[in-house]
Structures are given as C-alpha cells and as structure tokens.
Amino acid sequence: MAHLRIALAQVNSTVGDLDGNADTVVEWARRAAEAGAHLVAFPEMMLTGYPVEDLALRASFVEASQRALAGLARRLADEGLGDLPVVTGYLDRRTGGPVRAGQPAGAPLNAAAWLHGGEVLVRSAKHHLPNYGVFDEYRIFVQGDRLPVVRVNGVDVATVICEDLWQDGGPVSAAGEAGAGLLLAVNASPYERDKDDVRLDLCARRAREAGCALAYVNMVGGQDELVFDGDSVVVDPDGTPLARAPQFVEHLLVTDLALPAAPATVPDDAAIDRHVLSAAPLPDRPAEPPTLAEPLDDLAEIYAALVLGTRDYVRKNGFRSVVLGLSGGIDSALVATIASDAIGPENVHVVLLPSRHSSEGSVVDAEDLVKRQGVNARTIPIADMVEAFERQLDLHGLAAENLQARVRANIWMALSNEHGHLVLTGGNKSELATGYSTLYGDSAGGFAPIKDVFKLTVWELARWRNAQAGADLPFLHPFPHEPIPEVIIVKEPSAELRPGQRDRDTLPEYTVLDPVLADYVERDMGRDALVAAGHDAALVERTIRLVDLAEYKRRQYPPGPKITPKNFGRDRRLPITNRWREPSTRS
Amino acid sequence: MAHLRIALAQVNSTVGDLDGNADTVVEWARRAAEAGAHLVAFPEMMLTGYPVEDLALRASFVEASQRALAGLARRLADEGLGDLPVVTGYLDRRTGGPVRAGQPAGAPLNAAAWLHGGEVLVRSAKHHLPNYGVFDEYRIFVQGDRLPVVRVNGVDVATVICEDLWQDGGPVSAAGEAGAGLLLAVNASPYERDKDDVRLDLCARRAREAGCALAYVNMVGGQDELVFDGDSVVVDPDGTPLARAPQFVEHLLVTDLALPAAPATVPDDAAIDRHVLSAAPLPDRPAEPPTLAEPLDDLAEIYAALVLGTRDYVRKNGFRSVVLGLSGGIDSALVATIASDAIGPENVHVVLLPSRHSSEGSVVDAEDLVKRQGVNARTIPIADMVEAFERQLDLHGLAAENLQARVRANIWMALSNEHGHLVLTGGNKSELATGYSTLYGDSAGGFAPIKDVFKLTVWELARWRNAQAGADLPFLHPFPHEPIPEVIIVKEPSAELRPGQRDRDTLPEYTVLDPVLADYVERDMGRDALVAAGHDAALVERTIRLVDLAEYKRRQYPPGPKITPKNFGRDRRLPITNRWREPSTRS
Questions:
Q1: For chain A, what is the domain count?
Q2: B383 to chain A: which residues are within 8 Å by CB?
Q3: Which ipTM score applies to this complex?
C-alpha cells in the first residue's frame, strides 16, 4: 500500500466572482500544503460558482473562466504551491465535436482540471448532465467523454464530477476498470432534507463498484435559491466512512489514506487521459486521526441552511442590512430570528405596522421579540394610508383585506429604497401553496427565508431555536435567552386582516394540511393516490382545490409580471447573485 | 402516382382541457371528412395542450390523457368518423425501458397516435427533446425510438413530432430509408420573430432529404408566455410549397397530393411500426386549388401575436375584462389598444392616476385615447394617498419616485380584486432590461403584453396600428379612425415621477440603446463582441452596466419573491393556464 494525504477544500464560492474564487483556491491550497497534503481538491465549478445558468452561454464569460484557470495555475506556482496538485472545477468549452440544432451556444463544459507546476495538466468535463429538480444542465452544457487518471505518489487518482457519481455506468465504472486507487469526485450538490444519508450511501456504493476509496468534496454556502451544505466525505473501498466534514461551514478535510500502488502496466483505453506526476509510492505510515463530524439532526440542518442561505444572499448581493414587517405572528418572528442569526440583530430592522384589525397582543408580542433580540424597530400605524385609498375606492371582502397587506409592502419597499435594506418576506410554504397570501403584499420582498418550509416545521424550528438559547453553535447568534416569546409560538394563527379572522376559517388544520401538501406539491401524487396513501378524501379534494385554484391569489389573480409573450427574442436566465462583470476596457 | 387528400387542422388547444380539446378534434375531424379528406392531422400534444410542464410528471394526468385518447378514438367512430384516419398529439408514458437517476417520474412521452375504426392504431413518441430557449423537455419527457409508417390509400405515411424535424439524422432519415411517400410532422412550434422563413426552409430541406412530400401542421393560439402562429405548410419532395395556412387563426388546410404508391415490398426495420389501413391506391385526379396564404409582414405578425397572446391569456384563465393604468405615454396607449383589439373596448377598463408631477398634456392625451376607443375610464388623483405615506416616511429621490408607482399599482390591484378584471402591465423590454421601472409598481400585473417588445418596436407598432384604421383584419377591432392620438406617439418619453423627468436623462437614446440590448440580452454577446459589431464602446459599457446592475431596480433591490431557499422539497413547475382538474370522485 502507498500513503497519500489528501485535502478536500469544502469552501464557499460566489457565482461570477472569478478573482475572489481564485483567491479562495490559493488561500486553501496554502492551508493544504501547510497541512502536508499531497493533493487538494475543490468543488465543482469552483472558479465560476454554481449554478451559472445562462452565463455559460456567454462566450466572454467562458473565456474569462479559461483565463482565470490558466492564471490560477501560474499564481499557485508563483506563490510556491506549484508542487501541490490542485484539482478544481471551472467552466470550459468544447472545441470541435458534433454540432446539433439547439446545442448550447459555444458548447460550454462543466469542467474540472488538475493544476501542477504552473500549468494546467489535464482537463475533463462532466459526462452526465442533471436536468431534474433544481438542475437545468442540458440547457447550458454539452457532455464530456474523458476520464483523467493522474498518478500521485504512485497512486492512480481518477476524477469525476458530481452527477457522474449518481448515474450507473459511465465514468465510475471506467475508473474501476482503469484500476484507479482513488476516485475523486468534485461536487456542487445542494442540501435537501434527508439528502446527507442518501449521499453517503451513494458514495459507499460507488466505492464498492469502483473497488477503490472515494473522496467526495462538496461546495458550502448559499447561492440564490440553493444552499450547499458541504458534508464532504471519504470512504474506503468497502464503503466505510473514513472522514467526514462538518455541514454548513467551510472546512479543510485532511485525511491520510493507505491506497494500492498503481500496477506497472495499466489497461489501454482511448477515453482515459493518463498522467504521471510522481511514480514512486510513499511508504505507508500511521494515519493522523481523521475528522469524523457527526451530521446535524434534521431541524438543526434545516435551520442552519436557512441561516446560511439568508446570510449569503444578503452578503453576496452587497447588502448589509434587512428590513421586515413584524406582525406578532410566528412566521415573521422566525424570519426575524433567522435574520439575527445570519447577520446580527444590529443589522436587522423591523417595522410594526398595526391596522385597525391588529390585536393588542400582536403589538405587545412583537415588542417583546424586539427587546429579546435587540433588533432595530419602528412602529407605524397604517390606518391613515388605508383610509386614503378607501376614500377613493369602495372595497369589500378580499379587496379590502389585500389593500392592507399592500400598504404594508409599500412601506417595506420605501424603507428599502430609502435606506438600502433588503426586504425579507415572511410567507411559509403552506400558505403560499394554498394561495393564502396577498400578491404584492405579504408575498413581496427580495428574499423569502421560509418560503420552502411548511407551517408545522415553522413551529418546530421556533421551538428548536428557543431550545438552543445559550448553546454555542457556529450558525447562531449567542442570545443568552429564548429569542422568540413563547406566546408567539402557541397563539392561534391569524392574518388579522378582518375582525376575528383565523387561518382555520379558510384553511384545513395544518396538522392535516401539511402532509397532503407535501404529497401533492412535492411528490406529484394525484387525487386517487393521495386517498390511497391514507389522507381523508374530503381533505384531499379541498386541498387540491385550494392549491390548484388558489382561492386567495391565483384564481382571483394569476401570478405576477413574469407572464408575458416571450416569442420575440430569447431572454437570459441568469443568476441573481453574480459578481462577474464584463471587462470595462478591452483586454 | 396515387391520390391523397390530406387535411391539416391548425387549431387552438388549451393546456389541461382534455375534454374541450377532444371536442375540438371531433369537430375538425368532421370538417375534414366533409371536405373529403383521406387523413386529418392535429398538432403536437393536441389533447393536453402545450407546454404542460411538470403536469407531465403527475401520474394521474398521464393516465387521464391516455384515457382521453382511447375515448376520443371510440367517440370518433360513434359519430361516424371511424373511417377517417386521425393523427393527433397527446401525452403517454413508456412502460419498461431503462431507468436512470433523475429520469422524469413515470417516463412521460410526448406522443402521437393514429386513430382509426374506434381504436388506437399505433403510438409513437418524440425522439429529440428540445431543451433550449423556451423548451425544457429533458426535464419532463423521455425519448421515443419508434417510427410509425401507415399505408393510407396505398401511400406510406410516416409521422414525426416537431423537434424530430429540426435535428439531423433520426426519424426523418429513417422515414426516407423506409420509402415513405409522405412525411407528416405534428408540431407545437411557438412564433418567433422571423421564424416563419426558417421553418419553411427547414421543411423544404427535410422533404428533399426524405425524398418525399412533407406536411407540417402547427398549433395556433396563446398559452401562458408562448404564442403559436400556425403557418402550417405542405411542400413537395423538392421543397416547393404546395399549400400554406394563414397565421394566427384556426384553419383547416386541405390539400390534394399526388404521391408515389408504396412498393410491393418494403425494407425491413425493427424500429418501424408498419400498418396498412387501405392498400389500394386511388387514381390520381386533378387537384383542387390549394390555399397558399401570404405570410404577414413583420409588424403585422408581431401585433397579431400580441393580440392573440393577450386574448387567449384572458380567456383561457377565465377572465372577461382587464384593467390598466393609462398614463398618457406610448406604452400604456399601445397596451390599451392591444387590449381593445383582443377583447373589445367594452371589456377594457382604464384608470387615469395623475400625480403632482403629471403634465396636463398626459391627462388630455389619455382622455383623447379613451374617446377614440370607447374604453371604460375613471380618473383618480393619487396625491392624497401619496401624502398619507409621506406623512409617516421621509422619502427622497428614487424612494419617493417609486412610492407613486406603487400607489398606482395598489389601485389597479384593488380594482382587480373588487371587480375581477385582469391587470395588464405596460412595461416594454427596453425599460425592463435596463431596470427602468418600479418593482411592485408599474411592473406589477397579471399579463404584460409588450414586455418582450423593445421601445423602438413599440413606436413602430403604434404607427402600424394607426395605419390599419378602417382595414379589415381578423385580429383588429374595426375602429374607423386612428385609435392612438398622434401626439402620444411623437411626445418625448417620460416616467413623470419627478419634475421635468425624461427617459433620456437616465437611459441612452432608444435608437442606439435597443440594438445593443438585442445583441447583449438576446444574443449573449460580451463587451468586446459588442464593440466589434460596431456599437459605440462607451454606449456598450453604459448599457451593460444598466442591464447588469440595473440602476433602478436590480441593484437597489433584487427581484421579487421567487428568491428563497428551495432545498427542502421539490416545487412543481406548472402551466398557469391549465384547465385540468384532478377528478373529484374516484373514477
């Protein structure tokens, strides 16, 4: 067996920030070198960030990525790190090859490269392009077909990219047949609830298939609608975890491995690019104790993802502060707490906007939260503004309710424009799925931290967060006491837009609504399948009607300004968080 | 040569309205039979409408489409149309076949079927799945691999689906090798500016490749963000157009063809499903004169697409009326005119919402348009409402400007909620691309008719529409005089949100801005490429800065409520216009 110390750099990349991301690679490569690593690996699309969406179709961006990669290789050497092999993801393009109608312009590649000695040693690209869930890679990439195998200290290391690991056959099988001693997978794999276990099982299975150890490095950080959790891992050839990085934080996972030395002769395969950096195996030696982080429990994971997603959306878009309405209800209370944890309570601005229908309890409870967290607060009764509209318009029912929500949104937006705060929105997944919110009212805002969180989970997260008071967790503000008043968690939910209004007058109880919503909205189960799964038939039909017809929003009013004829020219789909700018002078 | 009279049913399908779409098939099949056709063909995904987006992933919807197809076959026979072969698109699923991670759930197929004698004779599915521009078919379909060849009156007719025609090789080549006498392509191909010529050239090329006549039937109608223009066509084996349907209207294109009779023996190919409906060729006979519609000119095409897109969005979503703000400027004037053409001026409600910065000319010009078109109008000065906010908030510059736009949006939305009108939005592509609009203000609304139209084209369309006064075109309201006051077309553009404001104080002149926007936003050209294409370097840099940083909206404030962590469960991407409902009792 041969000794290899590998370092997996689980870092936070920003879309479009080629210079900043290159700085991160240099900084963490230095840490790896200082830790005595023989190889350091960075995530998929490290240099460009992920997902780049239609930026991949802009030639100038592809070329900037190619230049950044070459520049990074030189800089690593200039800074004395040229001897350390560095594997990193970046954006490249295919030259030649088949062209077909509708192929992504410029044939962009989701690529990875080995850098060594100031040069780009070998380039490869992702074979399997995911196009499901949050992924749209068929739209923006063409497929790669090469497998790089690089010999480092006598060990053959094969590299694959993310989805290549999830698909049967393909480069993982090829790596096994190529006799690789280590399979290195670079990833930008977003957090999903319960996905960590799926990923670990997958790594174990692929290691057994390839018959070698597998090192999996993942991105960490929030990027627009996605949150990457890290959770990088190393498993041995029988699938046993040898090392695991903590979730939701940057981490250098350094692991000593005893790996089979490459044989004297290797099978010949035209699809494999073989390179030898150092042929002589290092003698096996006692391993340093590896990091084996425990994964977070379910609620901690979700809360950490929300905090990281919020923090990075604020930070990566150049904001320093947020503003949100605090109603005295659970949703806005949880969002305020997430914001305090993400950017510190001193950067959180809340506004209490009571109407004639707001209960006194709501105002008092909101004020209690303000005191507990020390956020900036201001109270503005909205009666004058609402009445100015009502003098001109004769509004009833839903129209009158919505007006109040829209006056509040106007105030958030005015404060945002005047002071540069980002508006956070408080809507949860249960109410948004059922249309129980006001378009351009409570649904307005720049970032909606709990939009993908069902109401039952909102309550669970609030209780979980209160239970952490005094705990020392990297993603929490150190409130010494419970940040959310208990009364806010236990009170009956109400929108308070008309006298005596309660959620349960309009919606089924959340304890039965949320499970149906999960099966219908997330799992695409139809009516009969929902009933067969044990949901009450009347509840199923009511929920389907709410979601499809959206009594409060979609039926009365279809969604916003995105709907338009778009046949006249192509529109770009671009990341919102994007630091890349076209060069302002010719280069 | 054998005689075949074919009918191409260029009809308007609605997503999810399986019953209504089946009714349409029966009605137009009857018309085809009455016209003596030997074969009638309907568009791609006729039964379900197109695009169905993630509805394809719901098993109950796939099963409903399968049942609707079988029911349609029976019903055609029951109504005495069983002898007429009917080709139609629908949604099916693959049984068996390979399964991979991330494959669309249930393996949905974009399918076509031949119906005859009360039965489904043969089914096939699209081979090539477009995943560029407005298409996301890799997300929701798996690929087909069969080519049906059906003998009708002694002629072998092969059917392919839309994108199969756009890709080299594949089923078109196979149809040629199979010795087909007619290649029939069923399509849902959205209108794009200048695409009609591209499509005709494509049909001609593929006919030559396959060595046989080609019949191309396309959908017509608006569906959410897409507009299908029809423009169905029949070309002979050397690519010469034999018949062409008018654009943007439903039409039955009946064409007499002299086609080669199928040979006694045909090549054997396991991927081809051959069926014989009627082996004996009909003797060739003199053809009836075919329809050869002239395509519309560029501006007429665009205007027709906007009218049809608006009419169908209103109608298919169950609205009967619209409301919009009329500022006295060109954008809202054009949108009001499109609305009058689409649904009649009696269903158009405009509100004039002057502020302290509105010029007297604006109000007078808007009132003149109201008189010319006879739309419903109401004037509500917004000063009281704006001042009610300003008493509580100390707003300056952009924040004060945006407040006025948001107060106006509140009024549109209140009128929408109170009276059930759909809000139309007036923003054009130039101002939206550069961020020269207010989030939740003038950009708010349910449908934005000119969002994909650059400002220069807005002016061209207004002049074109005025020039049609008194003309008899199927997509125009018969105004006897010019519907848009000339002064609105010639006046200097201004948002009128502060004293003396003009667009050109913030934006480059539209004559130079629009061409740069087209190259940057639609063609993804980078800075150097834009300069190399002849655009002024300073203008290019200014435009890129406007678009990327979006001085008015995106930089001050990132886009709306869509941004949220979405890692916790999958969300559906569903059509907004969708008539399909889960069955409300077990079937």
A1: 2
A2: none
A3: 0.92
- Angle (CA) A195-A200-A206 rounded to 5° is 120
B374 touches chain A (CB under 8 A): no
Q: Which of A270, A295, A320 is the last residue of a domain?
A: A295
Q: Give me the count of residues in chain B.
A: 587
If asked whether residues B95 and B178 sit together in one domain, one would say: yes
Backbone angles phi, psi at A577, to 5 degrees: -80, 110
- pLDDT of the residue at B133: 84
Q: How many CB atoms lie within 10 A of CB A110?
A: 29
Is A334 inside a domain boundary? yes
B-chain residue closest to A395, CA distance:
B418
Peptide bond into A51 cis (omega under 30): yes
| Per-residue tokens: B322 | 């619209």
Residues B320, B398, single domain; the answer is yes
Query: Domain check: are A139 and A232 in the same one?
Result: yes
Q: A520: part of which helix (H) or strand (E)?
A: none
Q: Is the pLDDT of residue A32 over 70?
A: yes
Q: Domain ends where: A260, A295, A330? A: A295
Interchain contact, A305 vs B567, CB within 8 Å: yes
Q: What's the CA gap between A33 and A167, in Å, rounded?
A: 33
Residue A90 is which amino acid?
Answer: Y
Please indicate, yes or no, whether residues A268 and A408 belong to a single structural domain of this protein. Answer: no
Q: Would residue B233 be called left, alpha or beta, if left means φ above 0 and alpha means ψ between -120 and 50 degrees?
A: beta
**A584 part of contact set with chain B, CB < 8 Å:** yes
For residue A287, being part of any structural domain is answered with: yes
Q: Average pLDDT for residues B354-378, to the nearest whole number?
A: 94
Residue in chain B nearest A419 by alpha carbon: B399
Q: Write the pLDDT tens digit of every residue in A216-270.
A: 999 999 988 889 999 999 999 999 999 999 999 999 999 999 999 998 888 888 8
- Strands B182-187 and B213-218, bridge-based pairing: parallel
Q: Which residue has 């699309």 as its token pair? A: A45
The CATH number for B273's domain is 3.60.110.10
Give me chain B's average pLDDT, please.
Answer: 90
B173: contact with A, CB 8 A cutoff? no
Return residues 537-556 of B near A (CB < 8 Å): 541, 544, 548, 554, 556
Q: In this structure, are A207 and A343 located in the same domain?
A: no
Mean pLDDT confidence for A330-347: 98
Question: Does residue A435 surpass a pLDDT of 90?
Answer: no
A166 to chain B: nearest residue by CA? Answer: B101
Q: How far apart are CA A37 and CA A30, in angstroms?
A: 10
Highest mean pLDDT out of A127-131, A314-318, B77-81: B77-81
Phi/psi class of residue A380: alpha, beta or left (left: φ > 0; alpha: ψ in -120 to 50)?
A: beta
Q: Give yes or no: residues B285 and B309 share one domain.
A: no
Do A160 and A213 have their domain in common? yes
Cα dist. A33→A27, A47, A220, A232 in Å? Answer: 10, 20, 21, 19
Residue A575 lies in a domain: no
Do A236 and A284 sit in the same domain of this protein?
yes
Q: Find out whether A329 and A493 touch, Cβ atoms under 8 Å.
A: yes
DSSP structural state of residue A584: S
Kindly state the average pLDDT of the residues B57-67. Answer: 92
Domain interval for residue A535 = 299-555
Gap between the Cα atoms of A288 and A36, Å rounded: 11
Mean pLDDT, residues B242-269 taken together: 93
Question: Is B582 within a domain?
Answer: no
- Tell me the C-alpha distance between B318 and B8, whole Å: 29
Domain containing A345 — which CATH number? 3.40.50.620
Lowest pLDDT segment from A224-228, A294-298, A330-334, B582-586: B582-586
Contact between chains at B168 and A581 (C-beta distance less than 8 A): no
Cβ partners under 8 Å of residue A467, min gap 6: none
* pLDDT of B415 over the 70 cut: yes
pTM of the model: 0.93
Q: Name which of B376, B375, B405 is nearest B389 in CA terms.
A: B405
